[in-house]
Amino acid sequence: MSEKFDVVVIGAGPGGYVAAIRAAQLGLKTACVEKWIDASGKPKLGGTCLNVGCIPSKALLDSTHKFEEASHGFDVHGISVGEVKMDVPAMVKRKNQIVDNLTGGIAGLFKANGVTSIQGTGKLLSGKKVEVTDKDGKVTVVEAGSVILASGSVPVNIPPAPMNGDTIVDNVGALDFQEVPKRLGVIGAGVIGLELGSVWRRLGSEVIVLEAMNDFLSLCDVDMSKEAMKLFKKQGLDVRLGARVTGSEVNGSEVTVKYTDANGEQSVVVDKLIVAVGRRPYTEGLLAGDAGVVLDERGFIKVDDQCATSVPGVFAIGDIVRGPMLAHKASEEGIMVADIIAGHKAQMNYDLIPSVIYTHPELAWVGKNEQQLKAEGVKFKVGKFPFAASGRAMAANDTDGFVKLIADEETDRILGCHIIGGHAADLIAQAVVAMEFGSSAEDIALTVFAHPTVSEAVHEAALAVDGHAIHIANRKRK
Q1: Is 451 part of the annotated catalytic residue set?
Q2: Which PANTHER family match (predicted)?
Q3: What residue numbers bound the domain in which 181 lies?
Q4: 146, 7 contact by CB (below 8 A)
Q5: For the whole prediction, is pTM greater than 0.90?
């Protein structure tokens, strides 16, 4: 006789494990199925984000940013250090230790909250049953009152650049280089491509980023993407737009990448090639033929605003459903769904999901950007404040970038905030909270900010919306 649970979650990434913990906290008997295993054969929790995504990439970004500062930024503070060296294997080992600490931490949280962790590959059957095939091929079936599908996403592979051992790699391989490649090619100038390109550029790689689109970071506010392109070029990232990769050829320890751009056919030779052209929902083997769950034309599971699928009692969250493929979006969906299953009213605000690119400077934004509002015919006003005018940013020798706040011209309600600069990922939370409460630019302008802090740039940008910034000359309003 199969075991019965109130909730069975398939996938233990930032959507699945959070959903499982929340469901258990709400008194529901909960199991979480995860196929990833560690060296000892136990479930390796945390999904892509903790194991080969958000967390390890930030570890490398922080390590290499410190290296960059020590190499090129200490002298301005009067600090002399001689030649700075990076022990790449030690850096990667530290990254792995952080991952182990966090994944082990989830196992501890499961235990503390009473979540049953099941190792194996989960498949949804009809009747809200879940078939689990463990690492040894043993098959069991568990029954559920409700099922939450949270199987995540995988990198998109492209035929012109097939994976090739450790020469042509995706984000996973790029996190484990044991030495600095002299020449590094990156296909894709999105979040992953720019972050991983930055990591190895700081350590001395000659980095060429090939982007098929003609516009750089087209999802960002145009002011921010222009500033980012200028700063990345200054740092030494060679970003080539309109560069469509047509083929690649591995010759020993190097790879020739062929691409076309406005000038015709081109090629470049690199020692490593990272393919970072996006991710796709991972649903292979997730659904039995009679499960009844419907996918859309792009392979995402169809859900409503509360993540319910076409089958009553079956929900789907995170990267396998519509919306941005972001860990925090998946987590919040997991909490919402657990609350709904437990009988509570819950709704998520999809209009205010912040996005971040963890380069240096960081890029962070929430809400609408200028080009979106123009396309929608919305009348708006803009306040902008450069970190170059921030006393705290000057003290930190980190003055690149700005805060841009956009408000409705008539109501003054904040419509969007776009930050490029040091600490942008943390500063954006101020705008998210303000917008969640329907704040006006004036509300932020009337708020007291500690001095001296970089967060004062948000304050000044809000003041600048109506031409009242104190620490820069205001543009004359029409």
Answers
A1: yes
A2: DIHYDROLIPOYL DEHYDROGENASE (PTHR22912:SF224), DISULFIDE OXIDOREDUCTASE (PTHR22912)
A3: 168-277
A4: yes
A5: yes
